[in-house]
UniProtKB/TrEMBL annotation:
Keyword Hydrolase in annotation: yes
InterPro entries per record: DNase_TatD-rel_CS, Metal_Hydrolase, TatD-like, TatD/YcfH-like
Xref: Pfam families: TatD_DNase
Residue sites binding a divalent metal cation 1 per the record: H5, H7, E91, D203
Keywords annotated in UniProt: Hydrolase, Metal-binding
Protein name: LuxR family transcriptional regulator
Regions crossing the membrane: none
GO terms for cellular component: cytosol
PANTHER family associated with the record: D-AMINOACYL-TRNA DEACYLASE
Highest taxon of source: Bacteria
Sequence similarity: Belongs to the metallo-dependent hydrolases superfamily. TatD-type hydrolase family.
Molecular function, one GO term: hydrolase activity, acting on ester bonds
Length: 262
Protein backbone atom coordinates (compact mmCIF):
# COMPACT_ATOMS: atom_id res chain seq x y z
CA UNK A 1 0.00 0.00 0.00
CA UNK A 2 0.90 3.66 -0.38
CA UNK A 3 -0.36 6.29 2.05
CA UNK A 4 -1.09 8.97 -0.53
CA UNK A 5 -1.52 11.80 1.98
CA UNK A 6 -0.05 12.34 5.44
CA UNK A 7 1.72 15.10 7.36
CA UNK A 8 4.87 13.55 8.79
CA UNK A 9 6.38 16.94 9.63
CA UNK A 10 3.66 17.67 12.18
CA UNK A 11 4.68 17.73 15.86
CA UNK A 12 2.58 14.67 16.80
CA UNK A 13 5.26 12.46 15.23
CA UNK A 14 8.40 14.04 16.61
CA UNK A 15 8.78 11.79 19.64
CA UNK A 16 8.35 8.46 17.84
CA UNK A 17 9.17 9.07 14.20
CA UNK A 18 11.19 5.88 13.82
CA UNK A 19 8.35 3.90 15.37
CA UNK A 20 5.82 5.42 12.97
CA UNK A 21 7.93 4.36 9.98
CA UNK A 22 8.53 0.90 11.43
CA UNK A 23 4.83 0.27 12.06
CA UNK A 24 4.02 1.45 8.55
CA UNK A 25 6.47 -1.04 7.10
CA UNK A 26 5.04 -3.84 9.25
CA UNK A 27 1.53 -2.99 7.99
CA UNK A 28 2.63 -3.23 4.35
CA UNK A 29 2.79 0.50 3.67
CA UNK A 30 5.65 0.73 1.23
CA UNK A 31 5.58 4.48 0.63
CA UNK A 32 4.16 7.68 2.09
CA UNK A 33 3.58 11.10 0.54
CA UNK A 34 4.01 13.81 3.15
CA UNK A 35 1.98 16.82 2.09
CA UNK A 36 3.06 20.43 2.31
CA UNK A 37 0.81 23.00 3.99
CA UNK A 38 3.19 25.98 3.88
CA UNK A 39 5.76 26.53 1.15
CA UNK A 40 7.97 28.27 3.69
CA UNK A 41 8.34 24.94 5.51
CA UNK A 42 9.32 23.01 2.40
CA UNK A 43 12.92 22.53 3.58
CA UNK A 44 11.70 20.23 6.38
CA UNK A 45 9.71 18.02 4.01
CA UNK A 46 12.49 17.89 1.45
CA UNK A 47 15.04 16.85 4.09
CA UNK A 48 12.68 14.17 5.38
CA UNK A 49 12.26 12.72 1.89
CA UNK A 50 15.98 12.83 1.23
CA UNK A 51 16.69 10.95 4.46
CA UNK A 52 14.08 8.19 3.98
CA UNK A 53 13.68 6.23 0.75
CA UNK A 54 9.99 5.49 1.45
CA UNK A 55 8.98 9.15 1.86
CA UNK A 56 8.01 11.52 -0.96
CA UNK A 57 6.63 15.05 -0.65
CA UNK A 58 4.54 17.79 -2.25
CA UNK A 59 4.84 21.57 -2.36
CA UNK A 60 1.97 23.95 -1.72
CA UNK A 61 -0.05 26.21 0.55
CA UNK A 62 -3.09 24.88 2.42
CA UNK A 63 -6.19 27.08 2.11
CA UNK A 64 -6.02 27.72 5.86
CA UNK A 65 -2.68 29.46 5.25
CA UNK A 66 -3.65 31.13 1.97
CA UNK A 67 -3.48 34.62 3.46
CA UNK A 68 0.00 33.94 4.87
CA UNK A 69 1.54 33.06 1.50
CA UNK A 70 -0.09 35.38 -1.01
CA UNK A 71 3.37 36.08 -2.45
CA UNK A 72 3.94 32.47 -3.55
CA UNK A 73 4.06 32.30 -7.34
CA UNK A 74 3.72 29.56 -9.93
CA UNK A 75 7.47 29.81 -10.50
CA UNK A 76 8.12 29.27 -6.79
CA UNK A 77 6.06 26.09 -6.84
CA UNK A 78 7.71 24.85 -10.02
CA UNK A 79 11.19 25.48 -8.66
CA UNK A 80 10.53 23.32 -5.59
CA UNK A 81 8.64 20.75 -7.66
CA UNK A 82 11.79 20.09 -9.69
CA UNK A 83 13.23 18.03 -6.81
CA UNK A 84 13.35 14.35 -7.74
CA UNK A 85 11.19 13.33 -4.76
CA UNK A 86 8.58 16.07 -5.08
CA UNK A 87 5.66 14.24 -6.67
CA UNK A 88 2.70 16.61 -6.23
CA UNK A 89 1.48 20.21 -5.95
CA UNK A 90 -0.55 21.26 -2.92
CA UNK A 91 -2.48 20.82 -0.90
CA UNK A 92 -4.57 23.74 -2.04
CA UNK A 93 -8.26 24.38 -2.49
CA UNK A 94 -11.19 25.91 -0.64
CA UNK A 95 -12.33 25.50 2.95
CA UNK A 96 -15.58 27.32 3.75
CA UNK A 97 -16.13 25.38 6.98
CA UNK A 98 -13.37 27.05 8.96
CA UNK A 99 -12.83 30.08 6.69
CA UNK A 100 -9.39 30.58 8.23
CA UNK A 101 -8.36 32.69 5.26
CA UNK A 102 -10.38 35.13 3.13
CA UNK A 103 -12.13 33.30 0.33
CA UNK A 104 -10.55 35.53 -2.32
CA UNK A 105 -7.10 34.52 -1.07
CA UNK A 106 -8.10 30.86 -1.06
CA UNK A 107 -9.35 31.03 -4.64
CA UNK A 108 -6.32 32.96 -5.88
CA UNK A 109 -4.00 30.41 -4.29
CA UNK A 110 -6.05 27.52 -5.68
CA UNK A 111 -5.75 28.84 -9.22
CA UNK A 112 -2.00 29.41 -8.86
CA UNK A 113 -1.59 25.80 -7.75
CA UNK A 114 -3.72 24.60 -10.66
CA UNK A 115 -1.43 26.46 -13.05
CA UNK A 116 1.61 24.85 -11.44
CA UNK A 117 0.03 21.41 -11.76
CA UNK A 118 -0.77 22.07 -15.43
CA UNK A 119 2.78 23.23 -16.19
CA UNK A 120 4.58 20.56 -14.18
CA UNK A 121 2.31 17.60 -14.92
CA UNK A 122 2.31 16.78 -11.22
CA UNK A 123 -1.07 16.08 -9.60
CA UNK A 124 -2.71 18.83 -7.59
CA UNK A 125 -3.81 17.66 -4.14
CA UNK A 126 -7.15 19.39 -3.56
CA UNK A 127 -8.60 20.26 -0.16
CA UNK A 128 -12.37 20.79 -0.42
CA UNK A 129 -14.63 21.41 2.56
CA UNK A 130 -18.13 22.87 2.38
CA UNK A 131 -17.23 24.37 -1.00
CA UNK A 132 -18.47 21.75 -3.47
CA UNK A 133 -20.09 24.09 -5.97
CA UNK A 134 -17.18 26.52 -6.16
CA UNK A 135 -14.61 23.72 -6.35
CA UNK A 136 -16.52 22.07 -9.20
CA UNK A 137 -16.95 25.36 -11.07
CA UNK A 138 -13.25 26.22 -10.80
CA UNK A 139 -12.20 22.73 -11.88
CA UNK A 140 -14.42 22.93 -14.95
CA UNK A 141 -13.28 26.44 -15.84
CA UNK A 142 -9.58 25.66 -15.38
CA UNK A 143 -9.83 22.33 -17.19
CA UNK A 144 -11.16 24.29 -20.16
CA UNK A 145 -7.83 26.15 -20.28
CA UNK A 146 -5.92 22.87 -20.45
CA UNK A 147 -5.99 19.59 -18.54
CA UNK A 148 -4.15 19.03 -15.28
CA UNK A 149 -3.96 15.98 -13.00
CA UNK A 150 -5.58 16.23 -9.58
CA UNK A 151 -6.67 14.33 -6.49
CA UNK A 152 -9.72 15.05 -4.37
CA UNK A 153 -8.00 14.41 -1.06
CA UNK A 154 -9.76 13.06 2.04
CA UNK A 155 -13.01 12.95 0.12
CA UNK A 156 -16.10 13.53 2.25
CA UNK A 157 -18.13 15.80 -0.03
CA UNK A 158 -21.27 15.08 -2.01
CA UNK A 159 -21.79 12.73 -4.92
CA UNK A 160 -21.90 15.51 -7.59
CA UNK A 161 -18.36 16.66 -6.75
CA UNK A 162 -17.06 13.08 -6.91
CA UNK A 163 -18.70 12.63 -10.29
CA UNK A 164 -17.26 15.93 -11.55
CA UNK A 165 -13.79 14.87 -10.46
CA UNK A 166 -14.07 11.56 -12.31
CA UNK A 167 -15.49 13.25 -15.41
CA UNK A 168 -12.50 15.62 -15.52
CA UNK A 169 -9.99 12.79 -15.13
CA UNK A 170 -9.21 13.18 -11.43
CA UNK A 171 -8.66 10.69 -8.64
CA UNK A 172 -10.64 10.44 -5.41
CA UNK A 173 -8.82 9.58 -2.20
CA UNK A 174 -10.50 8.19 0.91
CA UNK A 175 -9.34 8.58 4.50
CA UNK A 176 -10.41 7.10 7.81
CA UNK A 177 -13.72 8.97 7.48
CA UNK A 178 -14.79 6.12 5.19
CA UNK A 179 -14.72 3.77 8.20
CA UNK A 180 -16.85 5.88 10.52
CA UNK A 181 -20.19 4.39 11.57
CA UNK A 182 -22.21 7.28 10.13
CA UNK A 183 -20.43 7.30 6.76
CA UNK A 184 -22.94 5.11 4.92
CA UNK A 185 -23.48 7.69 2.18
CA UNK A 186 -19.75 8.12 1.70
CA UNK A 187 -19.32 4.35 1.38
CA UNK A 188 -22.12 4.34 -1.19
CA UNK A 189 -20.30 6.99 -3.22
CA UNK A 190 -17.02 5.08 -2.96
CA UNK A 191 -18.71 1.90 -4.17
CA UNK A 192 -19.93 3.64 -7.33
CA UNK A 193 -16.61 5.18 -8.38
CA UNK A 194 -14.36 3.49 -10.96
CA UNK A 195 -11.77 1.29 -9.21
CA UNK A 196 -8.97 2.75 -11.33
CA UNK A 197 -9.54 6.23 -9.83
CA UNK A 198 -9.40 5.31 -6.13
CA UNK A 199 -6.66 6.15 -3.65
CA UNK A 200 -6.32 5.62 0.10
CA UNK A 201 -4.74 7.94 2.64
CA UNK A 202 -4.56 8.66 6.33
CA UNK A 203 -4.30 12.46 6.48
CA UNK A 204 -2.26 11.59 9.57
CA UNK A 205 -2.10 12.76 12.30
CA UNK A 206 -5.82 13.45 11.82
CA UNK A 207 -8.90 11.30 11.17
CA UNK A 208 -7.80 7.94 12.49
CA UNK A 209 -10.07 5.14 11.22
CA UNK A 210 -12.77 3.67 13.41
CA UNK A 211 -10.76 1.30 15.65
CA UNK A 212 -8.51 4.22 16.65
CA UNK A 213 -10.92 7.11 16.21
CA UNK A 214 -9.94 10.06 18.37
CA UNK A 215 -6.32 8.93 18.62
CA UNK A 216 -3.33 10.16 16.66
CA UNK A 217 -3.51 8.73 13.17
CA UNK A 218 -0.44 7.29 11.46
CA UNK A 219 0.37 5.74 8.07
CA UNK A 220 0.04 2.12 9.25
CA UNK A 221 -3.67 2.73 9.81
CA UNK A 222 -4.26 3.18 6.07
CA UNK A 223 -4.67 -0.60 5.98
CA UNK A 224 -8.03 -0.25 7.74
CA UNK A 225 -9.31 2.29 5.24
CA UNK A 226 -8.14 -0.02 2.47
CA UNK A 227 -10.08 -2.87 4.07
CA UNK A 228 -13.33 -0.87 4.19
CA UNK A 229 -12.84 0.38 0.62
CA UNK A 230 -12.37 -3.25 -0.44
CA UNK A 231 -15.70 -4.10 1.18
CA UNK A 232 -17.36 -1.28 -0.77
CA UNK A 233 -16.17 -2.88 -4.00
CA UNK A 234 -16.68 -6.50 -2.92
CA UNK A 235 -13.04 -7.45 -3.37
CA UNK A 236 -10.51 -8.75 -0.88
CA UNK A 237 -8.19 -6.25 0.82
CA UNK A 238 -5.13 -7.59 -0.99
CA UNK A 239 -6.73 -6.89 -4.36
CA UNK A 240 -7.80 -3.39 -3.29
CA UNK A 241 -4.28 -2.68 -2.02
CA UNK A 242 -2.89 -3.76 -5.37
CA UNK A 243 -5.35 -1.54 -7.26
CA UNK A 244 -4.85 1.58 -5.14
CA UNK A 245 -1.07 1.15 -5.26
CA UNK A 246 -1.10 0.98 -9.06
CA UNK A 247 -3.48 3.96 -9.16
CA UNK A 248 -1.15 5.89 -6.90
CA UNK A 249 1.87 5.18 -9.08
CA UNK A 250 -0.09 6.23 -12.17
CA UNK A 251 -1.32 9.40 -10.49
CA UNK A 252 2.03 10.34 -8.94
CA UNK A 253 3.69 9.72 -12.28
CA UNK A 254 7.07 11.00 -11.11
CA UNK A 255 7.26 8.32 -8.44
CA UNK A 256 9.34 5.32 -9.59
CA UNK A 257 7.87 1.81 -9.63
CA UNK A 258 8.00 -0.13 -6.41
CA UNK A 259 10.88 -2.59 -6.14
CA UNK A 260 9.91 -6.21 -5.82
CA UNK A 261 9.18 -7.18 -2.21
CA UNK A 262 11.73 -9.52 -0.65
Amino acid sequence: MIDSHCHLDFPQFQDDFAGVLSRAEDAGVRRMVTICTRVRRIDTLRAMAEAHREIYFSVGTHPHQAAEETDITVDDLLRHAAHEKCVAIGEAGLDYFYDNAPRDDQERGFRIHIDAARQSGLPLVIHARDADDDIAAILREESGKGPFPFIMHCFSAGRPLAETAIELGGYVSFSGILTFKRSDELRSIAADLPPDRLLVETDAPYLAPQPWRGQTNEPSYVAETNRVLAECHSVDPERMAEMTTQNCLRCFSKMPPLPEAV
